[in-house]
Write a structure and sequence with these properties.
alpha/beta, Rossmann fold, 2 domains, 6-stranded parallel beta sheet, 4-stranded parallel beta sheet, binds ligand LMY7XDAE, Bifunctional protein FolD, methenyltetrahydrofolate cyclohydrolase activity, multifunctional enzyme
């Protein structure tokens, strides 16, 4: 058996088109053009690729690209001042601080400087608190993208066992909360989990965001499981995920590819959050 492919590229295109229509409708109703300020500090090559793609898709959706860049040597005060400037600028609907930051910077404190209304990455403690309480707010892009994939492919969640491997603030924790809010029973596994293979084998839906290439093999996947691979690693012969895809595809029911799975949806949900932030800032009829 070969698992069905959960096509994140096609779905992201669809979401981007929906956002473009939403932007046009918002402007036609008298709203200003939504603006996204991506902030890139330093020259991490992967971050350069992600930010370039975010900026391109933002423009394609009809939004303003208000990108700002600082050198790797920028001090905490300089990045703070830039975030404060963007926070005060009415043309800026959303602020995204690309991660990781250079090691000398205090990333959580800088993220926290972003006003919740412009937190299109959904990473401030205010956004996290709203999510934890199931109240409306901007959700982190990767977990929101995973939920869109699961819904687009009609993967049932209610009453199922969802296992999330990884407990990061960026993916694992919000992912678990979103799944739980859809009435899945959620287990979060991490580096100290005793029987990782056994836990994963009991999943109906398995979301792997461990940051370790190939950590999930076929032995950790029960036949028919829906497997979402959040990992992206640059290997000598191309991009690979946290899942050993050739082996897992033989047992899983559905599987996201890497590339072309969760990654493109992360950017699509950023566009969607930026439109939502602009709309909330200037509601129209
Ligand atoms: N502030 C943030 N920083 C980071 C986030 C985030 O959500 N907010 N997530 C990741 C990186 N990321 C977005 O920034 C991201 C990763 C991957 C992709 C993507 O489209 N991947 C493609 C492959 C692209 C390539 O050639 O490398 C795919 O999987 O098909 C988009 C966004 C860490 N930082």
């Amino acid at each position: 058996m070969t698992a069905g492919r959960l096509d994140g590229t096609a779905l992201a295109r669809q979401v981007s088109e929906e956002v473009a229509k939403g932007v046009a409708a918002f402007r036609a109703a008298g709203g200003t053009t939504p603006g996204l300020a991506t902030v890139l500090v330093g020259d991490d090559p992967a971050s350069e690729v992600y930010v370039r793609n975010k900026r391109r898709l933002c423009v394609e959706a009809g939004m303003l690209d208000l990108h700002r860049r600082l050198p790797a040597t920028a001090e905490q005060a300089e990045v703070t001042a830039l975030i404060d400037e963007l926070a005060a600028d009415p043309a800026v609907s959303g602020i995204l601080l690309q991660l990781p930051l250079p090691a000398h910077l205090d990333a959580p404190t800088l993220v926290e400087r972003i006003p919740a209304a412009k937190d299109v990455d959904g990473l401030t403690t205010t956004s996290a608190g709203l999510l934890a309480q199931g109240r409306p707010g901007l959700r982190p892009c990767t977990p929101a993208g995973v939920m869109r994939i699961l819904d687009a492919y009609d993967v049932p969640l209610e009453g199922t066992h969802a296992v999330v491997v990884g407990r990061s603030v960026l993916v694992g924790q919000p992912m678990a909360q979103l799944l739980q809010q859809r009435n899945a029973t959620v287990t979060v596994c991490h580096s100290r989990t005793r029987d990782l293979v056994g836990m994963c084998r009991s999943a109906d839906v398995l979301v792997v965001a461990a940051g370790k290439p190939g950590i999930i093999g076929a032995d950790a996947v029960a036949p028919g499981t829906t497997v979402i691979d959040v990992g992206i690693h640059r290997a000598p012969d191309g991009l690979i995920g946290d899942v050993d895809a050739p082996a897992v595809a033989e047992v899983a029911g559905l599987l996201t590819p890497v590339p072309g799975g969760v990654g493109p949806m992360t950017i699509a949900m950023l566009l969607s959050n930026t439109l939502a932030a602009a709309t909330a800032a200037h509601p129209r009829d």
